[in-house]
Amino acid sequence: MGNAHPTDLDTMTTHLRSDYTPFPYDIPTTDLLFDLKPELTTVTLWLEFERKNDEPVPLVLNGEHITLQFISLNNEETPLDPSEYTVTDSTLTLHNPPESGMLHIITTCTPNTNTSLSGLFTTGVHLMTQCEAEGFRRMAYFPDRPDVLSTYTVELIADKAAFPVLLSNGNLIETRDLPNGGHMVTWHDPFPKPSYLFAVVAGQLACLEETITQDGAEKLLQVYVEPHDLPKAQFAMDSLKASIRWDKARFGLPLDLERFMIVATSDFNMGAMENKGLNIFNTKFVLAHPETATDVDFEGVEAVVGHEYFHNWTGNRVTCQDWFQLSLKEGLTVYRDQEFSSDQLAEGLSPDAATSARAVKRIDDVAMLRTAQFMEDAGPMAHPIRPNAYEEINNFYTMTVYEKGAEVVRMYETLLGRDGFRRGMDLYFKRHDGQAVTCDDFRAAMADANQADLTQFGRWYEQAGTPTVRVTSEFDANAQTYTLHFAQSNPPVGIELKEANLIKAPLHIPLRVALLGTDIDTLIELKQANESITFENITAEPTPSLNRNFSAPVSIEYDYSDDQLATLAATDTDAFNRWDAVQQIFARAIVADMLEPVFSHEQFDTFRSLLTDESLSPAYRAQLFTLPSFSYLAQLVSKCEPLDPQKLFAARERASRALSKQLQIEWQSLYSTLEPKTAYAYNGVAAGERALRNLALRHISSAKPDTTTTQYAAADNMTDRIAALTTAIHEGQDEALLNDFYNRFEKEALVIDKWFTAQAANPHDANITATLQKLLAHPAFTNPNPNRLRSLVFAFCNANPAHFHATDGSGYRFWAEQVLAIDAKNPQVASRLARTLEQWRTYAEPYQSLMREALQTVFNAPNLSQDVREIVGKALG
C-alpha cells in the first residue's frame, strides 16, 4: 500500500468467534473499595474465584492504564512474591492459583487525565465510569469479559464537599460520615452481572425523585443532573415511568430493584449506558424543555430512556456470552424501544390516527436504516449482525448491529405473529435469566415456543450485506392469473471479500405483498434463490405493493412505471409503501437526470393532492414531502456510475426548488393554517403539525423572506426557533439572528451545539472554510466534548456535502486534520468520524483520488490508535 506502517494491520489482534472458550474460573463475588480522587483514585479489589475444572490453569485478569500497588491471596498481609504472577500492559496473570480463593489487589488510576472517557474519568466537577465494552480493566484487574458474572458490593469513599453524591449499582446499604470531611457509601447489587455493567458516579448533582408502585411494591426513581438543569429533567422521569409501565404490560417484565437511577453527563461518547440500576446518559438524551429542546430532542429522550431501561432484561438479566453476540442485546432492545415509541405516539388517538402515528415512526426508522445502514452494508466494514471476527470491539457498535439487528428481531414477529413472539420472549427469559447466552439461544427460544423451523432464518446472523430481491410480474388475462417472480441475491461484501469463493445461501425472507385492485394482502416466505407465486381469479392487471411496512430489510427492485408509482402514492393502504412510492418518484427524477430533474404535470397533480389531503396527518405529510437524503441518493447513483457529489447535490436542490415553485400556493396555505393556536406542548399530533409547518417555511422562505425572522421572534419553543434560524441561514439572513441566538442561549450547552451545527452544515456559505476556522477558535469550542465535536466537525463532514466534497480537496483535508486531532484524545469518537470516507471508491474523479490521499495521510500518521487504524486500513483495502 506504500504506507509507513506496512505491517500494522497484520499485527493487530484479530478476535475470532470460533476461538471462544469459557473463562476457566467462576467469580461468585466481587467487593470493591474506591477512594475517589480526580488526580489519583485507589481501587481495592477482593475477588473470589473458583476453578471450574480439575485441571490447574493460570488465572488471567485484564488491566490497562492502571498501576499495581499490592496483591495478596486469601487476605494474607504479605504480598505475593513477584515470581507468582506476571504483569504486562494488558494483563495480570497468577501462574499457579489454588482451586479457589480470594485475591486482594490494590491499583491506582488517574481519572483527570483519562480523555478516552472509558473507565473512570472526570466530567466537570464529577467522576463517572463507562465500562462497556472494555473499560472496567482501566480501574482494576479483572476478567473483563461479558460471560463472567459476579455479585458486587461496592464501598465509595470521597470528600463530602467535593462529592456529596456517591452512586453505584443496585441497592443502597449504608451511608456514614468519616473524619476529616469524608464520607462512605455502600451499595450492593443482588443480581450477578458482567463487569461492563458496573458503574460509579461521584459528584455535585441535583436529584429529581418520584416513586412508582408495581406488583404492590413501591420503587424509587431518581434522575441526577447538574443543579441548574433540574427543571429540564421531568420529561426524562416521565419517560422512565412510561417505559416501566410499558415493559410490564407488553412483555410482563418488572422493575427488579428497589430503585432505578439515571445520571446525565455531557462527556459521553455514546447516547447512554444501561449499567444495572444506574444508567448513565449523555445530557442530550435526558434534558428536555420546550425553550431549549426540539420535538426531535423530546422524541430522542423518550426513546433512549426507554432503550436503556429495556436493557434491564434484554442485556442485563440475560446478557451476551461474548462481544460477537452484541446484537443479541442491542438489536433486540432497539426493536423494543421502537415499539415503545410507536405506542407512545399512538396513545390516546383514534384507530386511524394511531395507525398514522405508528407509520410515521416506522418511516423514521427505515429511512435511517436505508440511509446509513445500507451504506454500511456496501462498505469495507460491512459485517453480519453477528460478526465472526473483529480487531477493535468499539468499532462494532454499528448501525448493522443495532438497526439491522432490530429488523431481524422484527422479522421474528412478522413470521410468528405478536402472540408467537411473546411466547418466544417468555421462553427465552425462562431458560436464560441470569445467564450469558448467544443469538442462537434466542432463535431457539423463538422456534421452540412456536414449534417453528427457523434453521434457515439463522443465516441472517451469518451474512453481511443488504439482500436484493428482484421482482418481475406476468399477467395472463385469458387465464386470469397474475404471477410474481422473485430472485434474491446477496453477493459477498466487506469482511466477506476475504473469503475465497464464498457462495452465500438463500435467506429466509418474510415479504408482505398486496395486489392493489384486489383483496389480496399476504405474507410470502421466500426461501429459495428463485421462486414464483401465482394468484388466481385476477381479472385486471394489479399494481403490486411489495415489502409492505418494510417487512424485511432488503432492497426491492421492480420496474414500476410512473403510473404505477402514482397509483401506489394515491391509493396504497399501506402507509409505508405509500410514502416509499413518493420517495421513488423524487429519487427517480433526481437520479435519472442530474442535469435537470423534471417532474411531470401529472406528478405535480399527485403531489398537490397528497399535500392538501387532510385525511393524512400533518406528521405523515411532512414525511411524504421530505426529499430522500443525499446519502441515500448517493447509494442509488453509485449503483450505476461513479458519483459526482456536486452534481447530485445541485440536482437535489433543483428538485426542492421545483417543489417550492409549483406548490407555492399550497405551502403558503399550510403555513398559515398550521399557525399554532395554543402554547407549546410535546405530543405526536402537535409535533407533526410543527414538522409540516416548518417544512412549509423552508419552501416559502425565498418568496416571503420576512416569514423566517417573524417566526424566529415569535417562537415560544426551540423547534420553531431553530427551524427559523436554519432557514434564515440558508437564505443568507444569518448574522443578526445567529448573534441573537447565541446571546440568548450562551449558557445552554446543548442549544449552543445546535448553533454550531446550523453554521457547519450550511450548504450556501460561500466562505465555509473561514467559518469553520472561526468556529474552531470560538471560546465555546475550547476543549470540546463529544457533543460539541459532533455539532461542528461531524456536522460539516457528514451533513454538508456541498462543501465537504469541494473539488480542491479542502473538505477532506479538514477531515484528516480533525480525525488525527481527536484520535490523540478520544479514539472512539475519532474512529466514528474516520468512517466518513469509507465509500471513497464509489466516487468520480477528482474526489476519489483526493479522498484516498486524505485516508493515506491518516493511516501514515504516527501513534494512530487501533480504533482508527482498523477503519482507515480497511477503507484503503
Automatic annotation (TrEMBL):
Sequence ranges assigned to domain Aminopeptidase N-like N-terminal in this UniProt record: 108-197
Keyword tags: Aminopeptidase, Hydrolase, Metal-binding, Metalloprotease, Protease, Zinc
Domain Peptidase M1 alanyl aminopeptidase Ig-like fold: 465-559
EC identifiers of the protein: 3.4.11.2
Domain of life: Bacteria
Cofactors: Zn(2+)
GO biological process: proteolysis
Domain Peptidase M1 membrane alanine aminopeptidase: 235-457
Catalytic activity: Release of an N-terminal amino acid, Xaa-|-Yaa- from a peptide, amide or arylamide. Xaa is preferably Ala, but may be most amino acids including Pro (slow action). When a terminal hydrophobic residue is followed by a prolyl residue, the two may be released as an intact Xaa-Pro dipeptide
Family of the protein in this entry: Belongs to the peptidase M1 family.
Protein name: Aminopeptidase N
UniProt gene name: pepN
